[in-house]
Amino acid sequence: MYELMVRSNFAAAHQLREIGGSCEQLHGHTWKVEVFLQGEELEEKGILMDFRKVKSIVKKRIDKLDHHYLNDVLEGMNPTTENLARYLFEKLQESIR
Q: Fewer CB within 10 Å: C terminus or N terminus of the chain?
């Protein structure tokens, strides 16, 4: 099994809903993102996938989140860390295929 990882980070604000406490107030984080790709075989050139391409795809998606209000970006989802991870997974999966 081969694995490729890209790390990134971004700053964004959000307000959680219906959980109570101070996290329902507007606040921000610097989010850390790690994207892992796995595969059984390497391409002809000896790579799992072009690292530059993966890094570029991740950057384009992260740039759409950086310094934004996640409640608007996640379109109706409660902007929890878990929902943000699912959102990124789904968006990146569409682009990396």
A: C
- The model carries a pTM of 0.90
pLDDT digits (tens, 9 = 90+) for 7-63: 999 999 999 999 999 999 999 999 999 999 999 999 999 999 999 999 999 999 999
Q: How many CA atoms are closer than 13 Å to the CA of 74, on its beta-carbon side?
A: 23
Inter-CA distances, 69 with 25, 43, 45, 90, Å: 13, 39, 41, 19
What gap in Å lies between CA 36 and CA 48, rounded to an integer?
11
